[in-house]
Amino acid sequence: xxRGEFRxxxxxxxxxxxxxxxxxxxxxxTYQPWWHAARVTIFxxxxxxxxxxxxxxxxxxxxxxxxxxxxxxxxxxxxxxxNIQLAF
Length: 88
Known about the structure:
Layout: E1 7-16, E2 19-29, E3 38-43, E4 51-54, E5 57-58, E6 62-65, E7 70-75, E8 82-87
Antiparallel strand pairs: 1-2, 2-8, 3-7, 4-5, 4-8, 6-7
């Protein structure tokens, strides 16, 4: 920030009775961080998802925790825009 470099990412979450959608869209990107992957945890998941899509591709690389009612996954290219869709 001291050199005028920063990164602004907008996150959204939409919940319906049968799905949860979370997305990230970079609005301003003049800063290149040292990281590329991000671990994302979505809380308030009512049951284990039947399907999880990461940027339209079905993935099985996620974990559901019934006790905390959460789903956790790693987004390998978190610097790009992405979306997650959980279907119940």
